[in-house]
Design goal:
Layout lengths: L25 E6 L5 E4 H11 L2 E6 L6 E5 L1 H18 L5 E6 L5 H16 L3 E7 L8 H14 L4 E10 L2 E8 L1
Parallel strand pairs: 1-4, 5-6
Antiparallel strand pairs: 1-2, 3-4, 6-8, 7-8
Length: 178
């Protein structure tokens, strides 16, 4: 007994219309080795078949829609390659956090300053915040002063992206690499 194969359900619909699936009738034809201009769909499909290539609708929203005579598989491959290249060149920035208390001592601030410098040199943003617990919220000015001094000490390697701002029980600044 012969088993029947189930249809592959994971197939993604093609992002472009090709050949017979193009619905617009007058189209703008572009591509190599073809006369560019506005022609009817049947003639364009004929040109593509003569060259052994596909007619691909590359810009369906244009008036009239733009179709190109190309090898469709190669076209998809090139698009995938360009997308991968763009993704690899994108810089992904992480945000590293440094936490202080409103009564943090000078030595501890200097210790955390070295960590912040390392993060910024690695290309990360730094979010420094003072966390107020219980009644320590009374010392908001002390927390703001601490954060501004911290930003001032990192002035050579980073720029202050966000001034000290209260968010709930935290006062936050954001520093970005120069």
């Amino acid at each position: 007994m012969k088993r029947r194969r189930k249809p592959f359900r994971g197939r993604v619909k093609d992002p472009h219309r090709i050949n017979e699936f193009i619905v617009a009738d007058p189209i703008r034809l572009v591509g190599d080795n073809v006369e560019q201009g506005i022609i009817d769909l049947e003639a364009a499909i004929g040109f593509a078949q003569e060259q052994g290539l596909d007619l691909v609708e590359v810009s369906p929203k244009a008036n009239p829609p733009v179709c190109k005579v190309i090898d469709y598989r190669k076209f998809l491959y090139d698009q995938k390659k360009k997308a991968k290249e763009l993704k690899s060149t994108q810089a992904k920035t992480d945000i590293k956090e440094i936490r202080f208390g409103p009564n943090t001592d000078e030595h501890d601030v200097n210790f955390k300053l070295k960590h912040a410098e390392k993060f910024i040199e690695d290309g990360h943003k730094v979010r420094a915040y003072v966390f107020f617990r219980g009644r320590s919220i009374v010392f908001k000015e002390r927390g703001e002063l601490l954060l501004l001094q911290f930003a001032e000490k990192l002035q050579e390697v980073a720029k202050l992206e966000q001034m000290p701002k209260m968010e709930g029980k935290k006062m936050i600044i954001v520093l970005a690499p120069k």
